[in-house]
Structures are given as structure tokens and as C-alpha cells.
Amino acid sequence: MLLAGAMVAAGLAISGLALVQLRASHSEVAQATQPLRAPPGPTPQDSAPAESTPGGARPTTPAPEPAHPDVQAQKEGAKPALPPAPPEKMAPPIEQK
């Protein structure tokens, strides 16, 4: 019990000394760098984006490309972006009720 009391008193004394030092120090705030300038505005593009309709699909300009090459590219030797799924990862089709 005596040891705990001595530890609390020491902690309070150290905290008090730290507060006195903080109050006595002269703190000055300086700006390290010049303020940044605004970036230049966007450059106009040749084609305007597609119009969106409420509740509709999100328009994309240009249309997204498939993740696999087309048949002609596969004949020329292009490989798909992802390998086929292993058999243990493929499930049977969901049956309609």
C-alpha cells in the first residue's frame, strides 16, 4: 500500500513539472510552406458522357470490355485474363421452384 502511494505521488510530481515546463516555454507557430495554388481546370473532351436516367442503368462511355479475349484473338493465341474455375468451385445450376 505504501509503495502504491509513493508511485501515485511520484506520478503527480512528474505531471506537475511537465505542466510547468509547458507553460513556461514560448511556443511560436510558423507556416512551413507557401499555400498551394489551385490546379488548372479540366480540359474539354471530344465526346460528352452519356446522359443518365433516374432508375436506369449507369451509363458508361465507352462501353466496358469483356474480361476475356474475343474468338478471333483466342485463335491467334491470346489467353483469357483468368484461368477457368476448378471443378470443385463450380456448383450445379440452381433449380427453379
In short:
With 97 residues, the protein is mainly alpha-helical.
Structure description:
The chain has 97 residues and is an all-alpha fold. 29% of the residues lie in helices and 0% in strands. The N and C termini lie far apart (74 Å). The mean pLDDT is 75.
Produce the secondary structure layout.
Elements: H1 2-24, H2 71-75
Estimated structural class: mainly alpha
Beginning-to-end CA distance, first to last residue: 74 Å
Mean pLDDT: 75
Q: What general form does the structure show?
A: elongated
Report the strand count.
0
How much strand?
A: under 5%
* Largest beta-sheet characterization: none
Global Rg: 34 Å
H-E string: HH
Ranges where pLDDT stays below 50 over 5 or more residues in a row are none
Number of helices: 2
List the defining traits of the structure above:
mainly alpha; 97 residues; 29% helix; elongated
